[in-house]
Amino acid sequence: ERERGITIDIALWKFETPKYYVTVIDAPGHRDFIKNMITGTSQADCAILIIAAGTGEFEAGISKDGQTREHALLAYTLGVKQLIVAINKMDTTKWSEARYQEIIKETSNFIKKVGY
User: Fold this and answer.
1) Is pLDDT above 60 for 15?
2) Phi, psi (deg, nearest 5) at residue 25
3) Domain 11-114 maps to which CATH number in 3.40.190.290, 3.30.300.30, 3.10.180.10, 3.40.50.300?
4) Cβ-contact 68, 90 below 8 angstroms
5) Which of 5, 9, 27, 100 has the least CB density, counted as fewest CB within 10 Å?
6) Which helix (H) or strand (E) holds 41?
7) pLDDT tier for residue 7 given thresholds of 50, 70 and 90
């Protein structure tokens, strides 16, 4: 995984707060490992959708057959009704506020259609 720079298998980390027992499940996002992503997501109450802000990366992910769309839809279909959206790689856009707002707008429109 380190050599390729991608998650292949799910990994678990557990901790507790005064109110909750929390298990973080790191699931792969790469298309080749979608079965592992489904395995991890099917066990979740909440998901964190990481979106790459890089030019071309975001557009590929949010496109009709993109991974971002597929993962949001799969998570909802698997019963995950709470979604946190995080934007990664903003440094590649020189922290552009316009790019941030563009990503927020397009992502919000899509995930609302999914059911979030």
Assistant:
1) yes
2) -110, 115
3) 3.40.50.300
4) no
5) 5
6) helix 34-41
7) low
Q: Residue 1: what pLDDT?
A: 46
| CA–CA distances in Å: residue 36 to residues 12, 30, 43, 77 | 13, 10, 11, 16
DSSP summary character for residue 65: T
Could you give the CA distance from residue 100 to residue 90 in angstroms, rounded to a whole number?
A: 8
Both tokens of 80, joined, read 């995950």
Checking if the pLDDT of 4 tops 60, the result is no
Strands (E), 1-116: 11-16, 21-26, 46-52, 82-88
Q: Comparing C-alpha atoms, which of 33, 29, 26 is closest to residue 72?
A: 29
pLDDT in tens, 32-48: 667 777 777 787 888 88
Distance CA 88, CA 29 (A): 13
